[in-house]
Specification:
Rossmann fold; 6-stranded parallel sheet; elongated; binds thiamine diphosphate
Length: about 400
Amino acid sequence: MTRTTPANGPTNAPANGPAAAPAKALDAEEVVAAFRAAGFGPFTGVPCSYLGPVISCLESRHPDDYLIAANEGEAVAIAAGARLAGRRPVVILQNSGLGNAVNPLTSLCHTLRLPVLLLVTWRGEPGTPDEPQHELMGRITPGLLSAMDIRNELLPDTGELLAERLRAAAAHMDATGLPFAFVVPKGAVAPLPRPPRQPSGDGSALLRSEAIGHVMRLVGDRALVVATTGKTARELERDQDRPGNLYVVGSMGCASSVALGVALHAPSRQVVVLDGDGAALMRLEAMATIGRTAPPNLLHVVFDNGAYESTGGQPTGSAHVDFAAVATACGYRHAADVTTAEGLAQALSRQPAGDGPSLLRVHVAPYSDPGLGRPALPPPASAARFSAEATA
Ligand SMILES: Cc1ncc(C[n+]2csc(CCOP(=O)(O)OP(=O)(O)O)c2C)c(N)n1
């Protein structure tokens, strides 16, 4: 698969070797304009930093045509519905989210012949250094798309070629009723100039890194702590690394379910999950199972910054969700919203360890240290260390 040669069909071979870096970067406005000119829209999906500029452009210029989804599978189903209503929908997703989308792509779009256009980013592209959680999916992305009968090719690197390939994609989708995917490598879309980020508002909002520090101090040394993907895990590792911490670097949204599994099978230990609002929304069903199984030793902390901060700060839509009410309705014994360090301490004193499950939604600023590093500990080492601690 090359940048300018379209794939020949649904069986086009996966790219096994290192791919060349994109020759040029497309401008995000140019990408959005080309898709719209070819009749594509609405757009829905979950962000990846590679497509952050495209999402920002959609949010600012075409807010009625961009819908934030909580989960990539949900986005595919929304797009399928939009197709039924006569539109040519586009789903924006990171390739890690292909896992969430496999079922609706195969058993909904394929079965009902509802063609949706995918813009899939290519984290972990072979030959391009990336984080461990992207290695396997990066290797199999083109092959996985092909295995699902989804014709795929790299996003072209000029506006003219993009317009041409969009016409070809539309013709293919009309002729076959099948989805089509453009795979978006690193650097394919130029970043937007960004003003230096500051803690928002009047500076009184808690920073997530501070809030993590408060929670860790209040839960104590013996607590087992499971941190969600993105900057939450990275901040925890940087500031508070210890054997009882597990950094769930991938599988966005699964940290609370991992914590549930630990809590049910290590009943003598307090288990704390540090979740994000985007991650909690991605797998909101986890709260139903936590509430039903009701492990008394589980504390679920959601750091709500209203954003997918780790991928560039796109909004999550969490302001529309009352997490505490959801948790209570699901069967959690305690749930509270807090905005300050004092509120956090008071809420935890009212939700004693052993009287859970409890939920604490901590409102934090959508900000993190721009110099925040990547996890130093290889994921298998982090898992083995945590497991040894959990079974000690
Ligand atoms: C299935 C999946 N989809 C998308 C991503 C890309 N991604 C990584 S972190 C992140 C944002 C997480 O948002 P949130 O839980 O609110 O935490 P924050 O980044 O705000 O700390 C996203 C979208 C991913 N890793 N996995």
